[in-house]
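This part of the workshop introduces the protein records we will be handling. Each record describes a single protein and holds just a pair of labelled lines. Instead of coordinates, the fold is spelled out as a row of discrete tokens. To make this concrete, we reproduce a full record directly below:
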Amino acid sequence: MSREKVDKELILKIIEREKQRLDNLSVFGGFSNFLGSWLAERGEAEDFPTPLLKYESLTVEERRKLLEDIEEKLKSQSDDGSSIAPPLVLPSSEKENHLSTPVRYIKGVGPALEKKLNRLEIKTVEDLLFFFPRYYRDRGEVKPISRLKGEGWETIQGVVTSQSRIATRRGPLLKIAVSDGTGKINLVCFNRNYLSKILRKGTKVQVSGNFRRSFGNWEVANFDYQLVNRENSDWDRIVPIYSLTEGLSLKKLQSIIYYALDNYLEEVREILPPSLVARYKFLLKKAAIEELHRPSLSSVGELNSRRSRAHLTIIFEEFLLFALSLKIRRQELTVFEVPPCVSDSALVKKFLAQLPFALTSAQERVVKEIHDDLVSGRLMNRLVQGDVGSGKTLVALIGALQVIDSGRQVALMVPTEILAEQHYNRFKDLLSSLGVKVGLLKGGTNKEKKKLIEKIQEGEIDLVIGTHALIEENIIFPRLGLAIVDEQHRFGVLQRARLKEKASIPHLLVMTATPIPRTLALTLYGDLDISVVDEKPAGRKPVTTLCFSLKERFKAYNRVRKQLEEGRQAFVVCPAIEESEEEISNVVEVTELLRSSWLSGFEIEMIHGKLPSREKEEIMERFSRGDIDVLVATSVIEVGIDIPNASVMVIENAERFGLAQLHQLRGRIGRGEAAGLCLLLAEAHTEEARRRMEIMVATDDGFRIAEEDLRLRGPGEFYGVRQHGVPEFHLADPFEDWSILEKANEEAKIILAKDPELKEAENCSLREEIDRRFGRYLEFGEVS
């Protein structure tokens, strides 16, 4: 055995001994001195972090974490001392770095708890401080048991008199009796057996919960408790309720957050200019964070309506920072000059001449807005929004041809490979006679793709269509003049920015079929000019929408059969593909059911997100050719699929979809000669679900549906925006807090008018925080 191996084994044993007591006394002269010397002898001292040198000043928890990481590093080395793992990077114990310290270094957080916190996107001390409650519960005044009403949350104080276990089918159920002299209650402890050790006989306790009568006795299963002793006689009347994850209790999360407040809150910097804080009567940021976690100044009504001074402070700051970042981005874009595109494009004229129809007045208006941007010599940054079927893609294509005619390339980024393939086939047919070279770039690796990338880099491809593959690092566009992003809500701002880094800064055109209310557009696209295609092409057939209960499925499918017998094709959309989701239509089950009964005799195929890309493409090609009569799918068909002969759609469990998504799905039919028929199968048990179905039946106006969806679904759910690239706010919500957003937007204008670069003393913190939080959204490439 080599000396290196003996040395390493000895050191590991010493570390193990030190871990047992963590007192720096496991070796004579001090463990930290010994280990530091040993590492220096081996020339590895630089591989380990500075906390080793400050071992004595670390907390017990920090010492334990440090030793575990050093142990892991040593075990990962080969016997000759060479590392087979990356060097350790641990947080410095310096105070200024504490907010970015990983949560695993917080007292009481072990590896298992760290994983649970990570599931809630809590990874650092800062994440903990800004993980605010979802809502607040009022425990009410403490009252005698004899005066309980059994309405809402009530609170009593008493002494534990007994414990018992009741036999049930799932095993013994713990019940704890509490009395206050005026009456008795039973705490029913489902999955809370640990309470038998906490709430022992004679323990004084305060209990708050939904008390109910059961066989003449008061019982409570959903309850909070707090032990009462001399040191802790105060009752927190308002209880913050946080989002949780499996295995993480409210009490445990609160204790970790309170530890962070007590130890790290002072390190939070004040960002808002003092003049704004005074004018709006905001709290200081530290006080606002403290109040949101441990309310003492606000009523439960103010807190739950998000209108406490603490809420207003944090929400306003977040909106102000974001509004400033967008305006700065816009300012910086205006300084870039680009070669103007040709104004009178021969290529555009030829293309328009070969179209078998005229543009709508809305299309003509938006084409002119894009044209004026392209010839201005300034960068275009424009959002084109319009309802499904309004002809946005054609408008974008005309702009693309103007850029191509000016000798530059165009990249079109779409959210799915199916849609990329469809655009490619359609554009290739439309543009081949004009001499425009179109390329399709997909994920994966193969010779064909490599060859296409070479052609793109040599400037031989005029229009490149692709998904996320377009933003891969190894693809360079030598003459990129225009980036078109289709269905922006499927892409993050970062992806959009990365596409713009592919060479020179190109013009940007974003298309979305999701009508966006003004407030939301202001938040998401404050750096873009907005065009609206608000008119559908002449001759576009209306889609009739009908709603059936699940018991009436046979009626719906009888209508589908009639359409199929007339030579049409149909979509059947299901919201889930996992068998474990009870009562939700399953793609596989529905497919088998249709084949065996309701639509037997027709060619039926299924498609869902778990199928390999190539298999999905093959199925869609067969459906496009008419080889498949009925396509059973998940909402993979939501965005952009265009099958003119598909005139009927059935949406199973329609109540599971949001209004906007239902409208997007419905937009896939009625694109050919036959009128469309959309059949909603729903179990609308709630008022909101019933209202959604009524709106779908009543209108196909996307803008009206967008407004209703915003009204019905409320903050944070509208279009699932949070999952689609919006910079995450800790507390601010552009839907619920629109009035604050508009104030912040006005203040941002005033601040930048006086101090465009945020260099004045009271604005320096704003600039630093913008760079820290939104800097990656403000990066630009070189202008060629």
In short: Residues 315 and 737 are 8 Å apart (CA to CA).
